[in-house]
Amino acid sequence: MPPAIDLVLVFDAGRTHALSKQQATDDARNAEVEYNRLLMMLRDAGFKITGRRGERRGEILVLLWTPPRKLAQLVTAQVHDDFLLGLPSSTLPGQIKDFVETPLSSGDRTRVVYSHITSLKVEGGLGIIPGVEEWPRLKSILALHDNDFNKRWIQDWTHRLRGFNIPLAELNKIRDEVSYKLAIFNLLY
């Protein structure tokens, strides 16, 4: 069974408007340089990646998976940062050995990986942020959704749950699937 994809980075290598031959050549060269720099940064950081053609012309999807050792490093760093900031980190394992015994929920896994990729370099991240000057062709970074979970969640909430009294067990399901922050947001609002 292939590893589950943690994130998808959407890269736009093509331009939609007509260019002269020289401009098209320069644009293609610049796109290639930026794409190769993106791949090299992700590989050097310890991620496993592969590229696939997107739906639109010139669109490349970079599928990213985090090996267990790299994920353990990111979790350890996140727990450390949360502690220094005085934030609760009870949903994340405290040590690497706990991480092996208690795997991360898909929501926490996505949050930890996304945070590392998009955090600034001075904060220990990679600084890969869609649309900034350094990454003009990177259009977005997104997580894949579990369609079966989403359908069950919507069906349960529209048929069984009335009003704003959401049982804690339902919030825990959301937290495990999409992250602690979204579960808290739904509790507060």
Description:
- With 189 residues, this protein is an alpha+beta fold.
- It folds into two domains: 138 residues, no CATH class; 43 residues, no CATH class.
- It contains seven helices and four strands; from the N terminus they run βαββαααβααα.
- Strands 2-3-1-4 form a four-stranded antiparallel sheet.
- α2 crosses α4 and α6 packs antiparallel against α7.
- The C terminus is likely disordered.
Provide a compact summary of the structure.
With 189 residues, the chain is of the alpha+beta class. The chain has seven helices and four strands. It is globular, with a radius of gyration of 19 Å.
Percent helix among the residues?
40-55%
Please outline the major beta sheet: 4 strands, antiparallel
- State the distance separating the first and last CA atoms: 39 Å
Task: Please work out how many helical segments DSSP would assign.
Answer: 7
Low-confidence stretches: 182-189
Report strand %: 5-15%
Average pLDDT, rounded to a whole number, is 78
Task: Please tell me the total number of domains.
Answer: 2
Please tally the β strands and state the result. 4
Q: From the alpha-carbon coordinates, what is the Rg to the nearest angstrom?
A: 19 Å
Helix and strand content put the structural class at: alpha+beta
Which strands sit side by side, in order, in the main sheet?
Answer: 2-3-1-4
The helix/strand series, from N terminus to C terminus, equals: EHEEHHHEHHH
From the spread of the alpha carbons, the general shape counts as globular
